[in-house]
Design brief:
Elements: E1 2-3, H1 4-20, H2 26-32, H3 38-50, E2 54-56, E3 64-66, E4 83-84, E5 102-112, E6 124-129, E7 138-144, E8 158-162, E9 172-177, E10 181-190, E11 193-197, E12 206-209, E13 213-223
Parallel strand pairs: 5-7
Antiparallel strand pairs: 1-4, 2-3, 5-6, 7-8, 8-13, 9-10, 9-13, 10-11, 11-12
């Protein structure tokens, strides 16, 4: 017997596995169930594990397997204790094996963390753990230069970028300058001008008219390889 919230969560996880092959994140589960905190999601998952309805796959982030499913798509609530009836183990449906939660992001060349350089479109891809990414469409760029080192972004890092054409003041963005060159900088708006600020005292800010700068994404994460 499960509570209505446990029933709702297991349905949501199963639906996401069927659609994408990847378990939803704790943030996505929190929002889907309208919970106030992720700790509520942890408690629900732990309870479902104890009752044998869910299993966490070891050594893989965001990897859950549904091993028992609700009998009906809409839970029938009991008036006294708000529980729903589940199918017995012998009648359960077979769940698809969750896919390895690694996403192949398009790798679009190099981007300057210094003076703007051309952002090259390429055919390469970069494998990225899905747990590093939030919602939305993403792509990757290799960082060239040291103008963002005080923000922890170094030459040779891979910037994981969520595609968007808007950003708030102070966010780190991929900015396309004059339709030709791209750079990774803090975005500052000042009236009819846009200032692209570095995170390195050795570099000066770059100031452009607002119509000369187009936001192409916001920094969502970083990958660093050690050789």
């Amino acid at each position: 017997m499960l509570t209505a919230k446990q029933h709702e969560l297991i349905r949501f996880i199963q639906q996401r596995l069927e659609e994408t092959g990847i378990s939803p994140s704790f943030e996505e589960m929190k929002e889907a169930l309208d919970l106030k905190s992720k700790s509520g999601v942890h408690r629900l998952i732990s309870a479902l594990e104890e009752r044998g309805f869910l299993r966490r796959l070891p050594n893989r982030a965001r990897a859950l397997e549904v091993i028992r499913q609700p009998e009906n798509s809409t839970p029938a609530r009991a008036a006294a204790d708000n529980v729903v009836t589940m199918t017995p183990p012998a009648a359960r449906a077979v769940s698809p094996e969750p896919a390895n939660d690694v996403i192949e992001l398009p790798l679009h060349g190099r981007i300057a963390a210094g003076a703007p350089i051309e952002a090259l479109e390429g055919q390469s891809t970069l494998p990225v753990p899905a747990a590093l990414l939030g919602p939305g469409e993403h792509y990757a760029l290799e960082v060239s230069g040291d103008s963002m080192i005080e923000a922890g972004i170094f030459d040779g890092d891979y910037a994981l970028v969520r595609r968007t054409d808007t950003a708030r003041d102070g966010e780190i963005v991929v900015a396309l300058v004059r339709g030709e060159e791209a750079t990774l900088k803090y975005l500052r708006k000042d009236g009819g001008q846009v200032r692209l600020d570095p995170a390195n005292a050795a570099y000066e800010a770059q100031v452009y008219r607002s119509d000369e700068v187009q936001v192409q994404g916001k920094l969502a994460g970083l990958l660093r390889r050690y050789h």
